[in-house]
Design a protein that fits this description.
alpha/beta, 16-stranded mixed β-sheet, 16 helices, about 40% helix
């Protein structure tokens, strides 16, 4: 009996599957119904509907939970279920939800909601303070879940009455056995912070709900599961791989994978924010543009409310959605959760949305000299049929308007990002030099104290095992 082959490398399918299993640390879980959701106005109702339908337990983990209008909607929903006798567990990152006022949490606790904060700062544990819970996950009754890139706050809801559109983000609703696997990921982290969940609060066998098989990539510090899976997707892409990332500062393996795939003729596209809530990260992203463009990668910058999604769609069949950004913080230091599916239907939906997104973006290209672009620029790659959906609420420019605004000169962006970063470093060093010049004794005392603090932290860190 012959074994089906991978069209790009003539590898048996079973070899590709085994490689992905090992890279992701997860085997495909069959029997799921998966719906892709775009932006808060689609994702939040799916979450709130599931919360309202909970009968046994609610496990809710999110990096940021704000006490604003959106946050209060979720608090009210969780309080109502707790009052009905449902076990409600809420997990959030201490730093991510630092600005949320105590009375927000107090109201939920008084209603019977159990809340745990991940990793409050420890004065002498410097390395451990970098570890954050960056997951975005809701699991209800162990059988249904919602995950993706959305935190809980008004930024993701938008304010239509003020013409403020929601942040652009992507999530997915999952019904079926994969939800139970995600529940176990929640239970593992919950148990690190206190008493574990009881056996009666984790689902056993969950009935099949659909035809999609999902890998659940449960990222933990040092595990690099999402990074390995991404590198494998890049290495295996035969036709195209389209990436959306909010804070792209790719580690070397992924960066090289982007270059290699594009040089090999793969249609590699990267969609990143044009303006960001973290401008420093955006500038670091722009510093990589030159080499990416020279290799043939097409780069698009989103023009609209903050682009916060973290997705990959490859070869019209592979889809990755989750909380992991393609940077060292997400891939190495944080707790993250992503799902990976090999499903043409989901991939088609993602590609349709990707085309909508680049319609609202500008493409970054080398600055044109005369009639020809600079050497190294990649030609346009053909794609499948264009999107015909009219559901997108944002402005759709015409062809002539897109041609006028579609190209942003690389040199201006590159030099602007570089100058901004270097100016920041220069100003910091200048201030430091001035302080040493005019206040030598004070600065000597400050640095002596800092050195002793770092020495103590390093010594204690060598004695104490890492903790979450």
């Amino acid at each position: 009996m012959s074994v089906p082959a991978n069209p790009r490398h003539d590898l048996p399918v079973e070899v590709v599957e085994r490689a992905m299993d090992r890279a992701a640390g997860s085997r495909p879980i069959p029997g799921n119904r998966v719906g892709i959701l775009f932006d808060g106005p689609e994702v939040y109702p799916a979450m709130l509907d599931r919360i309202a339908a909970a009968t046994r337990w609610i496990h809710f983990d999110n990096y940021i939970i704000r006490g604003d209008t959106t946050g209060r909607r979720f608090a009210d929903a969780l309080i109502e279920r707790a009052a009905a006798g449902v076990k409600v567990r809420v997990l959030t990152d201490w730093i991510g939800s630092f600005s949320t006022r105590r009375r927000y949490w107090r109201a939920m606790r008084e209603a019977g909601v159990e809340i745990r904060f991940f990793n409050p700062p420890r004065f002498f544990e410097l390395r451990q303070n970098l570890v954050r819970d960056h997951r975005k996950l809701l699991v209800v009754d162990g059988a249904t879940a919602v995950t993706g890139g959305l935190c809980i706050g008004d930024e993701w809801s938008g304010r239509p009455e003020e013409n403020r559109l929601p942040w652009r983000d992507t999530g997915c609703a999952i019904d079926g056995p994969a939800a139970a696997a995600m529940d176990h990921a929640f239970a593992s982290l919950w148990g690190r912070l206190g008493a574990p969940l009881g056996d009666d609060e984790l689902a056993g066998d969950v009935a099949s709900q659909g035809g999609t098989a999902l890998r659940v990539i449960s990222g933990e510090p040092g595990g690099v599961r999402a990074a390995r899976a991404t590198e494998l997707l890049l290495a295996g892409a035969a036709e195209r791989i389209w990436i959306t990332d909010a804070y792209l500062v790719a580690p070397r393996g992924i960066y090289q994978g982007l270059l290699d795939a594009a040089r090999d003729g793969v249609d590699v596209r990267v969609l990143v924010p044009g303006s960001s809530d973290l401008p420093h990260v955006r500038n670091l992203t722009r510093l990589s543009y030159r080499d990416l463009l020279a290799a043939g990668v097409r780069i698009f910058e989103w023009r609209g409310a903050m682009l916060h999604a973290k997705t990959i769609v490859s070869d019209a069949r592979w889809v990755r959605i989750g909380s992991s950004n393609l940077n060292l913080s997400s891939l190495i230091a944080n707790y993250e959760i992503d799902v990976l599916a090999e499903d043409p239907t989901l991939a088609h939906a993602m590609e349709v949305q990707y085309r909508r997104d680049i319609d609202q973006s500008v493409e970054i290209k080398f600055k044109v000299r005369g009639a020809k672009p600079r050497r190294g620029f990649s030609a346009h790659h053909p794609v499948a049929e264009p999107s015909t959906s009219s559901a997108h609420r944002r402005h759709h420019p015409g062809l002539r308007e897109r041609r006028r605004g579609a190209v942003v000169a690389l040199w201006g962006l590159f030099t602007g990002a570089r100058r901004t970063l270097y100016l920041q470093y220069s100003l910091a060093l200048t201030v430091l030099g001035v302080l040493f010049l005019f206040f030598p004794r004070t600065m000597a005392g400050v640095f002596a104290g800092l050195s002793l603090y770092l020495a103590t932290a390093a010594w204690l860190g060598s004695r104490n095992p890492p903790r979450p």
